[in-house]
Design goal:
This protein is mainly alpha-helical. Helices cover 34% and strands 5% of the residues. It is built from 15 helices and six strands. The radius of gyration is 26 Å and the shape is globular.
Amino acid sequence: MKKGNTYKIFLFSIVIIFVLLITSGSGYFWWNASSPGRTCNSCHEISPSYNTWVASAHREIKCQYCHGTALSNGWHSLKEKTNMVFSHYTREMQLEDISLNEGQILETMERCRDCHQTEYSLWSSSGHSASYSDIFLHEVHNTTEQLNFDCLRCHGMFYEGTINDLVEPLSIEGPWSMIDESKSGQPTIPCMTCHKIHSEGQPLTEPVYSEPGNIFYNRILENETVGFYSRHEKIHFTLEHLPTPVILTAEDTVKTPEDPIYRLCVQCHAPSVWHQAGSHDDHTPVGVHEGISCATCHNNHSNFQRNSCDKCHPMISNCNLDVKTMNTTFSLPSSPNDIHSVSCRDCHEDMLSRK
């Protein structure tokens, strides 16, 4: 047996003994009850993750609540910790930044639901909860556009494989099937697509009720926790780092929404390489709605928009028409007037032509 393998087995044995010690009786209780600053942070490789967590809104939730305990991840956890110890002392293996794989992301998302039940319920009712089979076995889409590597940029950014490992055939001619059937029902856009869990933030605090006039002023401006996870770079970019795209109608530049939420939406709902509004999956508002944010009409988690008109419009418009029943895609999916690009002329062509 090679000397390196013997040393690795020796270190693995030490890890096993250590885990057994902390998971037995008082040792197990102490480890899980103690502050992460005295347990998890004792390993300097974990310090960067600890430092972001301690400044986040989740800092009052202990690490093991989301990540599990030493034994809850079974063999994977023991193997990972052994490799960390081996690398620490031998420098023979360069460890990547600590991150969760897709399976762990989905497990953690289930724990998110324990506290964020409303948000999880709204997400479940939205198009963003679509599974791998919903996306990659969609006959109409697959016959229109051939599946390719870039599909995973928005639908499966945490998937460890490639499009070749996920679905077959890569052709506009089906029938299509999942290579790994276990992926079929899994969501392609989990919470961590837009939310970085260790983002800076403040825990919820009760206001000083004896001074109701100061409640507004005493509130701390929250740091932005929304962003976009890049599959290729394996980095979560917050809104301030997302670029504002140039959107065109023919050769004219469209006024894009100033709300940074738009910069997030357009990462996936993007136009073609020619940047024309409405091309591909782009929904940048033009026409009468040019410049308004996606969040003006769409609920953050459910994307529900059927009650949005009343935010800006009275029940009856200036032309005595109910905006909710106008001939647009808001009212009828078969309407030729897309709500994202509708103009006055689309509904009032006869009136305008008489002037």
